[in-house]
What does this fold into?
Amino acid sequence: MRIVFMGTPEFAVSALEKLIEHNYEVVGVITAPDQPAGRGKKIRMSGVKEFALEHQLTILQPTNLKDPLFIEALQMLKADIQVVVAFRMLPEIVWNMPPKGTFNLHASLLPQYRGAAPINHALMNGETETGVTTFFLDKEIDTGKIILQRKCAISAKDNAGSLHDKLMLLGAELIIDTLVAIETNQYKITPQKDLVHAQSDLKPAPKIFKQDCALNWEQSTETILNKIRGLSPYPAAYTHLKTDDQPFYLKIFAASKVEKSYPGAKYGSLFTDTKTYIHGVTGDGTISLDEIQLEGKKRMQIVDFLRGFKLAPHSFFTSLI
It folds into this structure.
């Protein structure tokens, strides 16, 4: 089959690489326009574009997916099928173009965790299992008929970074399985509505904004730890470290539960030996901060942080400045 591949970030690169490894005919790659990035605002191309250039693939970078010139260029590629991984929402004129349709890879077991951040939300909700799904695109986002799924266990040590990498590799394999199934007509599609007993059973995975990353120390230890690992390493959970002088914006990348308790201490209270640990009191227990980043500083282990930062007496954590 003649394949057009659509994707932008690193999550999509593994899938495109797998297509090339299996000698599929990728006749075109659609990816986001180059963007300024970093402090220097240097123009940076997507991971998918870098890979496509290395393999001398035809590249299209439309700013408007309904642009007649883009539609014409896409039609000229004469794709039999389109494969989408971590790309923008497509207009019907695009996803309905190839004769064998357009399918998308989603990093969850649909219909659960529809949306832009399924990996983060699965961890934040304390799930022990997730997976990847391929489905044919439809008019509503992430609601099309399911082709194949593969499950993936979530370990207690997983964070968003490690789970991303697991699902990236599993998803690339699932794309190959899906293409084989479509080529041989050995598959059965499942409407997502058949898997939904009630709308209230669905867990969404909307885009995460900065305000969503703030820790609420009144919540339980389990809730706070799940939020930290679900947002690590990006965009990262944060709190404000309030000292006698000023509040500091503090990202937390790793933390762990400790059995030590501080009777009478209010949630958000901070305890430290100034050398090896910082403990924060939650709504029902205590956590130890293991890896953090103070605004304007490097990400570091807590021992290194305490070596260079002197905590004022009566410091505490707060979600408010």
